[in-house]
Every structure is written in C-alpha cells, then in structure tokens.
Write a structure and sequence with these properties.
The protein is built from two helices and 28 strands. It is mainly beta. It folds into two domains: about 270 residues, Jelly Rolls (Sandwich); about 140 residues, Sandwich (Jelly Rolls), CATH 2.60.120.10. A hairpin with a 4-residue loop joins strand 7 and strand 8.
C-alpha cells in the first residue's frame, strides 16, 4: 500500500445484514462492531472472546510483509471458518477460465476485437454461474496477471456463498444494482460504482432492482492500491476519503448452505450448516471496499497536447518492475476538453500494455459508433488502435472550442501481459467481425507540396 495514514480507527454499529453502512478512507485500519462490547481492548486474541465468539485472522499478505504493505484483519465470529471445510468436492467450472488457459481455447488469429453488449439471458444465473471469462493473462499460480470476465446475474444467491483464492475481484456495475453481503458487512453498487472483494473473502450476491450486468477483473497479483501521483501532488485523481468500507453486519443463521471456492483455477463446493457471514466485529486494514467513479477528479492538458492515458488511473496493482503494472484500472469519465491546436481524442498508438475496455454509459469520444454501453473491446500488446475514421475527420476539422464530454464513463483493465481470448469470447454472436473496418475510411492526406496548417 502506498497510503501513509494507517492509524485511523472508526467504530460504528451496523445492523445485522440489513442496510449498508460505510467508513471512508482507502488503506486505513478500522474497527467496527455490530454488537457493542465485542471487540477486545488492547489485544487481538484474548483467552475468551466476548459473547462466546471465535477470534480469527485473515491475512492478505505475508506475515512478515513490511508494515506499510502488511494487510490483515481480525474477525470475531460465531463459527471459525474451519467449520466451513467439511469435505470439498470438485464442481463444473461453467464458463470460468483461469490463466494460463489452454491456447486451444481460441484459434482466432491475432487482431483488434470488439463485442456488442452480451444480452442477459432468461435462465437462472447466480453470481458464480453468471461469470463468463473473456480473457486470461499471466499465470494465477505464480500470482501474476489477471482475467477479465463479464457477469450476468438473474437470481440472488440463497444459502450459497463464494470466495476466490486465486485473486481479488474488482466488479464494475454496468446495468442495475448489485448487493454484496460479505464477512465484513454489506456493499451495494450501481452503474458508475465499483467494489473490490479481496482474495479469500466470503460473500454472496443479491439483485436489488432486476437482472444485472457487470464487468469483473480478477487480479491474480498484489492488491490494488492508489497510483503514485508524482508531481500532481496530494490532490485529484482518486482521493482516499472517497473509498468506502462496510461496517460490521452479521448473519446468525443455522441452515444448510453451500460454500463455493475458486482455487487453482478449479471450482469446489462444500456443504456447511450455517451462514459463513457470521462476523460480529472486525478490525484491520484488509477489507472489501467500494468507490463511486463519478468522484474521480480528472487532470488534463490546459493548453495543448495531452498527457498519457495513465493520467486516468484510478487504482493500480503493481508488479516487481517499477512503473509497470500487473493491472491498471483506468477510467475515461466526464471531463472538459480545452486544449488548443490539438487532436483531442486518444491518438493512434501501439502499446506494451494490453487493454480490455468497456463502456458503462454514454458515448466514447474515439468510437462514437459501434462501441456502445455494455460493449467491450480488446487491443492486445503492440496491436495498433485509435479513433475510427469518422472520429478522426471530426477531430481534425472541428472548431476547437472548450467542449464538455458529459454523461460518459468508459474504463480499461490494462495489463503488461498479453490477454488470450477464451472459447466463449471468440464464439460470441456479439463479436463484431467487421470491427477492423472502422479504420477502413482513413484516407491518405499526404501532400509534399501542400502547406503546413
């Protein structure tokens, strides 16, 4: 973590799994109890915990990680999680894939790829059944890389729970709301908001206002943190105070339930006799959180040219190579464009990083046609991309007045690894075979006898 303040504590009482409540501050250490008097004072694991609870630590980093990077929380729960490990059985992975996925997954040749919105089906799909892997990158077992999924949910989870041991999950809501009931409390997100459920955290997902569609980044590497701001300084981009962590809210339910686990690229299930969301109180800095992308404070060029698109990084999961991310989460939000004598859309480029892009709502300025809300594009390592022909002509010839790009939100999952298509992604009816044609209309303008503009 590159957040300096690790000392803030905030204790609040949360209702038992009813209404979401939040504490603010990315990377902070918190304490919260749903039943007053639960948290032990001055020690983590007393001989006996109040109210007959069990003390348990959940670690998101090695025990010996430096203090500023050490992630752990103490949970005070009705049942220890060893009670969740009856006997695991392997179950069908469905459409979930994990890196390194077999190269035989897709035999499509390399190229730029784009998909229209994937329809939400009529069949019953809870969170796990509704995950469809689009790309995989790196190797989950070496804790490097990521997978990009589309999530289609038509039913709430009932007495069914899940955790991912392979990576942390960044969920980007695109259509309708989702409610995440976690060990740490309740989080709700709507289109324009994200949440992160970190590695190993147990949760279940409920619908709020109808079937939902979302994008999911499964980050195999180190956890997401805020990017280094450099000369930007202390303000703008994503500010720590806007990240919200849930207050404690527990379920006291002794009912037959199923816990699903993703581990080593495989899906397992175990039968348990109670809700695993039975944490009455917790303290620490390893906890799920949400963020409203509309609170992002963009920075841009005020006179001419533009900075690199990395200026729009919300969070980054660093790699062992300084400045080269395992995964970057980048957005293109509502903002003003004011630069003079400048081609304002993203320029044509080839890039070391591989870009999985989605549009949450609105219009994306470099692709006003064909790339619509719920859609996806993939521009892999060193494959060229940029504005389509119409966007180029408009940006090259339009009068340059200050323009506000309003009511728009696009994002990228960007990684240093090539992203390999899954069989599911390659075979989708929504894959646009004619995507490459969006650049077909780019005309030759070169005239050695012409004049400079």
């Amino acid at each position: 973590m590159n957040i300096q303040d690790q000392s803030r504590f905030d204790s609040r009482a949360g209702a038992p799994g009813l209404v979401p409540g939040y504490m603010s501050g990315f990377g902070n250490s918190f304490e919260t109890e749903a039943l007053a008097g639960t948290l032990p004072i001055g020690r983590n694991s007393p001989q006996k915990v109040s109210f007959g609870l069990y003390a348990e630590q959940l670690s998101g980093s090695a025990f010996t990680a430096p203090q500023e990077a050490n992630q752990r929380s103490w949970l005070y729960r009705i049942h220890p999680t060893v009670k969740h490990s009856a006997r695991y059985r392997k179950v069908d992975n469905g459409l979930i894939r994990t890196a390194p996925a077999a190269r035989e997954e897709s035999d499509l040749p390399i190229g730029q790829v784009r998909w229209g919105p994937i329809p939400i089906p009529e069949e019953k799909l809870t969170f796990v059944a509704g995950l469809r892997t689009m790309t995989t990158a790196g190797d989950a077992e070496t804790r490097a890389g990521m997978a990009a999924h589309v999530l289609l949910v038509t039913a709430s989870m009932r007495n069914e729970y899940f955790f991912d041991a392979d990576g942390e999950l960044l969920i980007v809501a695109q259509q309708n709301k989702l409610r995440f009931r976690t060990e740490f409390g309740v989080i709700e997100i709507e289109p324009g908001e994200i949440c992160v459920i970190q590695r190993g955290m147990i949760f279940r997902v409920e619908l709020v206002n109808g079937p939902a569609r979302a994008y999911v980044c499964e980050n195999y590497g180190g956890g997401f943190t805020l990017p280094y701001r450099g000369p930007i300084g202390a303000n703008c981009l994503a500010n720590p105070r806007d990240f919200l962590t849930p207050v404690a809210a527990y379920e006291d339910k002794e009912e037959a339930s199923t816990l699903l686990v993703k581990w080593g690229g495989e899906l397992y299930a175990t039968d348990i006799g109670q809700s695993p969301l039975d944490v009455v109180a917790w303290h620490g800095n390893y906890a799920p959180y949400k963020y409203d992308l509309r609170r992002y404070s963009p920075v841009g060029a005020l006179l001419f040219d533009h900075p690199d698109p990395s200026i729009f990084t919300v969070m980054t999961a660093p790699s062992e190579t300084p400045g080269t991310a395992n995964v970057d989460f980048v957005i293109f939000p509502e903002r003003w464009q004011v630069a003079e004598n400048t081609f304002r859309p993203p320029w044509y480029h080839r890039n070391l990083m591989s870009e999985f892009m989605g549009l949450i709502y609105g219009v994306y300025d470099a692709k006003p046609q064909g790339f619509v809300p719920g859609g996806i594009s993939l521009h892999n390592c060193m494959l060229p991309h940029g504005p389509d022909a119409d966007a180029f002509e408009h940006a090259s010839n339009n009068e340059l007045k200050p323009v506000k790009l309003a009511d728009t939100m696009a994002f990228m999952f960007e990684t240093r690894f090539p992203q390999r298509l899954t069989k599911y992604a390659a075979g989708l009816e929504q894959r646009q075979d004619d995507y490459i044609d969006c650049w077909k209309g780019l005309r030759r303008h070169f005239d050695p006898k012409g004049q400079r503009p």
